[in-house]
Design a protein that fits this description.
CATH superfamily: Aldolase class I
CATH topology: TIM Barrel
Bound molecules: iron/sulfur cluster
Strand content: 15-25%
Mean pLDDT: 95
Structural class: alpha/beta
Number of domains: 1
């Protein structure tokens, strides 16, 4: 679909859970708002209905996000259900990679095309500190498993505080280069002040060319990460929620108070 500003909106990012097995400081800080109750989370059937309806409106790219999508039970079944939808040309997932070594093969067999893996440091201690105890070796094993399962191209999402010339970012860039991976650098964002940047090596944050809407795990279609606008698929129905979100999508993001990263998958 084309929005009011002439942008082609064809990319649906779907958060399948607000839960995660890590506690990255910039995403799930201490004293976090409550997590969603089970009944608030969309079922696989509801998620598939949103994706099917979106494809009918011209969407071709679907990405599964979280929280951490691999902590959602039977996630490979959801992937298999989505992979059956004709018209999805790109079915991808963003993951922190901690469980990927266990899942890569079954996800590929279910029909997943590729993965983006969060990796902010190559230093095991620094990585553990940034992620609230994450094990870097498990992420590296997950990257190898994704490569073997042909979930390619594998892209690394590296969050930077100020610039991609920070030591951690340079180490991730070197690792990516040496291993035939793509690294992208995501500058720290601030939802409250509406401070964000275009992703280095990617297209996120480029409002004039924005092509996406997001579905949060509790069924809210959010036309923009940096906006409080949200349309409930359970209250409005899937078609109306998607149409209204695309029609009311803002020209650019700004300060917002209703989004939280782990609930909308960044
Ligand atoms: S801030 Fe909103 S409009 Fe801009 S790139 Fe992000 S989602 Fe798109």
């Amino acid at each position: 679909m084309i929005d009011r500003f002439g942008r082609t909106i064809d990319y649906l990012r779907m958060s399948v859970t607000d839960r995660c097995n890590l506690r990255c400081q910039y995403c799930m800080p201490e004293g976090l708002a409550r997590l969603l109750r089970h009944e608030e989370i969309l079922s696989f059937e509801e998620i598939v209905e949103v994706a099917r309806t979106a494809v009918g409106m011209g969407f071709t790219k679907v990405r599964l996000t979280g929280g951490e999508p691999l902590v959602r039970r039977d996630i490979e079944q959801l992937v298999a259900m989505l992979a059956k939808i004709e018209g999805i040309e790109d079915l991808a997932m963003s993951t922190n990679g901690i469980l990927l070594d266990d899942y890569a093969a079954v996800l590929a067999a279910a029909g997943l095309h590729r993965v983006n893996i969060s990796l902010d440091s190559m230093d095991p201690e620094h990585y553990a500190q940034m992620t609230g105890g994450g094990d870097l070796q498990r992420v590296l094993a997950g990257i190898e498993a994704a490569r073997e399962a042909r979930l390619v191209p594998i892209k690394l999402n590296c969050v930077v505080t100020e610039s991609s010339t920070e030591p951690d970012a340079l180490a991730v860039a070197r690792f990516a280069r040496d291993n035939g991976l793509e690294a992208r650098f995501i500058h720290m964002m601030d939802l409250a002040t509406g401070k964000f940047f275009v992703v280095e090596g990617g297209v996120g944050g480029d409002c004039p060319r924005c092509n996406r809407v997001r579905l949060s795990s509790d069924g809210m279609v959010r036309p923009c990460l940096f906006s409080n606008l949200a349309f409930s698929v359970r209250e409005l129905g899937v078609s109306q929620a998607l149409e209204q979100a695309i029609w009311e999508k803002p020209a650019a993001g700004g300060p917002c108070t209703h989004n939280w990263m782990h609930g909308i998958g960044g």
